[in-house]
Q: What sequence folds into this?
């Protein structure tokens, strides 16, 4: 656990570099917007006897899935456009 904690600290310190902050904040803002969209689109129906039904409009689901895919592409673009980050994340996953 100490080894993992140390490694995550190193990775976190690398991502704290100001040259990455603008891109990471933009990705984070998109993630927060997606989270809010999901929470707004989910509908909980009381089925009685402490049972609930959760559902979402299919069109909203498609929008959310498209937004999620766009965020994944942004993350992939960020990682591939910064070789140091790419190698650090590769090393991190090998150790964990």
A:
């Amino acid at each position: 656990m100490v080894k993992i904690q140390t490694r995550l600290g190193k990775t976190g310190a690398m991502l704290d570099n100001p040259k990455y902050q603008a891109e990471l904040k933009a990705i984070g803002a998109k993630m927060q917007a997606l989270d809010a969209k999901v929470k707004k689109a989910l509908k909980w129906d009381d089925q009685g006897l402490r049972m609930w039904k959760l559902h979402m409009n299919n069109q909203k689901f498609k929008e959310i899935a498209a937004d999620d895919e766009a965020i994944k592409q942004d993350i992939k673009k960020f990682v591939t456009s910064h070789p140091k980050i790419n190698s650090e994340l590769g090393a991190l996953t090998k150790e964990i």
